[in-house]
Amino acid sequence: MTDDIMLKVERLTKMYASTAGTGALTVLREVSFSLPSGASLAIVGPSGSGKTTLLGLCAGLDTATSGDVMLAGEKLGELNEDARALVRNRHVGFVFQNFQLIPTLTALENVLVPVELRGEGGREGEARDLLARVGLGERCDHYPVQLSGGEQQRVALARAFMNRPKVLFCDEPTGNLDGDTAAAMTELVFGLNRERGTTLVLVTHDLELAKRCQRIIRLRSGAVVSDSAA
Amino acid sequence: MTFVLKMAWRDSRASRRRLALFSLSVVLGIAALVAIGSFTANLREAINDQARGLLGADLVVTSRQPIVPAVQEHLRDLGGEQAREVSFSSMMVFHPGEGSRTRLVQVRAIEGRFPFYGEFLTRPAEATARLATGGPVVILEETLLNQYGVKAGDTVRLGKVDFTVLGAVLKVPGESMAVTQLAPRAYIPLTQLPATGLAGPGSLVRHRIALKLPSGADPVAIELAMREKFRTERLNYDTVEERKRDLGRALDNVYAFLSLVGFVALFLGAIGVASAIHVYVRQKITTVAVLRCLGASARQSFAVYLVQGLGLGVFGAVLGAALGVAVQLLLPHLLAGFLPFDVKFSVEWPAVLRGMGAGLVICLLFTLLPLLTVRRVSPLVALRSAFAERVGGPDPWRITLGVLIVGAIVGFAVWQTRSLPLGLGFAGALGVGFGVLAGLAQFVAWAARRWFPRRLPYVVRQGVANLYRPNNRTVLLLLALGLGTFLILTLYLTRTTLLNQIQGTGGNGRSNLLFFDIQDDQIGPLNALLEREGVPARQQAPIVTMRIRGLQGRSVEDLLNDRATAIPGWTLRREYRSTFRSELTETESLVQGEFTGRVAEGAPVIPISIEEGLARDMRLKLGDEVEFDVQGVAISTRVGSVRKVDWQRMQPNFFIVFPEGVLEAAPKFFVVALRAATPADSARLQQAVVRDYPNVSAIDLALLLQTFDAIFSRVALVVQFMALFTVATGVIVLVGAVLTGRYQRIRETVLLRTLGATRRQLMQIQLVEYAILGVLAAVVGCLLAVAANALLAQFVLKTSTSVSGLTLAVTVAAVTAITLLTGLLSSRGVTDHPPLEVLRQET
Lengths: 230, 843
What we know:
The complex is a heterodimer of chains A (about 230) and B (about 850). Chain A has seven helices and ten strands. In chain A, strand 4 and strand 5 (about 75) form a beta hairpin. Chain A is α/β, with parallel strands linked by helices and about 230 residues long. In chain A, helix 4 (about 125-135) packs across helix 5 (about 150-160). Among the domains of chain B are: about 55-245, no CATH class; about 540-675, no CATH class. Chain B is about 55% helix and about 15% strand. Chain B has a six-stranded mixed barrel with strand order 2-3-8-5-7-6. A six-stranded mixed β-barrel of chain B has the order 12-14-19-16-18-17. The longest helix of chain B has about 45 residues, at about 240-285. The chains are: A alpha/beta (about 230), B alpha+beta (about 850). The interface between A and B is medium-sized, with 37 and 32 residues.
């Protein structure tokens, strides 16, 4: 592996035991690809094609049945859950389709969580700057329930960049937003990505959004059907 | 750590009121433990502080016979000061003359300056000084003054003497009111005793000498020396140390019992907390998953909620301790009459900390159980909610925690009872009780799903469906309400069973009035009087007092001095009140041998019949020789038969029955049993008999019932007070459960309203659900209480039992009403939310 490879996926397979007990269900089949540092990748495919599973495995949220994931130089398959959590905290940012802000924390506190988890204090100014950067400088003390969907997603984006991630994983980041809000969000994601030189992995149904990435991997029934430049 | 604390604090913002409510579930349990612990410590202190006042003397010697000169001389030689008392039961006549009434009292004829320590409190205070002057004066139990409308200066009659009432006894060192309920006390000067003509031969008299020893004398050493020197004398000794020990032991038992009742409340509350935290954690799963995505370790996410659980426990413990101290102030009033000393209130911090500690540990262990789920929340939940908990093999932490919980419960029970078998028994019973309730609750939920008629109206079906839908609270609510019902009803039923048992002794035409201490020359005229009054004697038994002189050729002295013998000393020392007759009575049945009804005059060895319990204690079997001393005359007997006696019937029963033809010439007195048709007849008879025969005493079944009920009511009040903690905990758990599921309810009602349900229909659905829960909890609680009462009746009280349908109906109605009221009040506003508001929160 060369130094500028940020994410390397080799022959990744994920199977789930069938609930009916009729054998295993394969949701990902021998997927391989690698992504250099600073690159952007969109994973597309129909519902049930394994996009989210692939994203989860790449981010170390789950373990593969076989195959390897190398993220920021760490072989995830060799790490236990807590060690993977440490990798996520150091190198990874997330944006989810459902925003996934912690409802009991204010916007500012939500953004601060990743650094507070590391025990780092004194980063409040940076968090406020990030919120200002996404246009929410005046909404720092608001709770998620007091924000609109677009605003919540922008807080999530600020949180994702708070720990200066090497890789940003986005799961349908505009899936729950209306057209205008989605467009503004897309600009923010790619803008911040460019500014901070972050590697971007994006799961989406939206082909227009996918085309903004440098590379697109299409999945069908858990297998890669195409891997091409956008 | 900073993150964990910060996150725990911030995350609790929206739930603090809810968490505080959860903690209320354990508050009452902790309050009970703290109150009992601290109050018991107050009692122990009072015992130590007022040790000498517990006895009123340094040493007290008592005997059923006049204390022999040798002992008196020995006591005189000890120096110091002496006070004497002769006590016995007798009938007192109130308002002699027209409209007189009688009652059994305990006469205490006293001489000397007793008590030497503590105070003999009377109203008026100078009554004791006037008693010491020695005239025909009496101080009466306060209850007697109230009951018979007697006041200072009035006259009452004892035997042949009219006494002037000086006032009321309020407090005598070392005696509690409860022990004097059957025969209230009447203090007279000892010098007046002979003139009354009471306490003659055959009367059950207790002689007592109280000593104030010279300073430096050791009462315990003196007691030991006297026990050795006067081994064969029938003497009992009491010292301050012994009184302290006895009281301490009694206190330990009461403390253990009440603590265990309190612990049931704590345990129930802890289950409530566990259940509420379970729901709370389920609502926090997405937050945990997000934290995990952002890099929190399993330990960190777990710690966030552990801190919240700990905070909840500490809050509950502090609140519980504060409430416990407040309850501690109430306990002396509840126990008034049982305590033979004054108790000063003070907060006993070690006891408070112990109660809080026990509460906190139990609360924390039960909180940990649902919290363990947090460790297994997959970060994938943030992406897809289907992955709520990572599946894996059996969780070793969960198993360890289960073992710890069982260990903590058993440990607590053993700690309180200071007995491994008792502690295990309590923990086992608790487990079985909870197991039965939980099992029944699950069965009910299953049965509702399986068999409930589908044709009933929609609101009824929806209400019933709430019993088995996902995240239902059926088991928890049935546990909480059922257990409370079970505890309170068991107490009530046991009390009724006991009262019925006593009533039953006089039921079915059996005797309900006993006259005793009837002298040989009085029996004929007394029987004639009874005939004239139309209430003839049903049973009549002559009584001859005697002692055992020897067994199997060995003298009693020899046996008492032989430390290897297994025969209890009391069986050898006691005075036996035996009878003679030709046949067994209806309360007796032959177990072994042959009952001999009559022997020829001058028979060398007399065959006697002995009661089976005494035979067992004395290791006597058929054919064994027993030599009696019948008021100076030696009589040789052998065990001819062994009888079983039903002691619970109100008629004269005896340990030893002689055949006719032996004791007829011995000094004797009689006891007569009869049945008075009404309480008025009973009172009239007693007055007539006491008027003509002042030395004769009476025991009325109604008086026994009244006495028992008064004592049991007091005990039941204390126990019910403690059981109330469990019931109140049940209600809090119910409120907690309803509020915990509130958001889910709101979503459901909003959906139903969107689909066209009216507010009335929504209310009806809730009514059906809570009514079913209330009825089921009450029915299950009632079933358990009836079963417990039946078991107690059969194995402990040895009596039959019947339960009134009305009692059960009232219980079911009350519990259902409480459940409905609590449920509906806690659900207030659930139907008020506009659909849009909730649907918006969903997005």
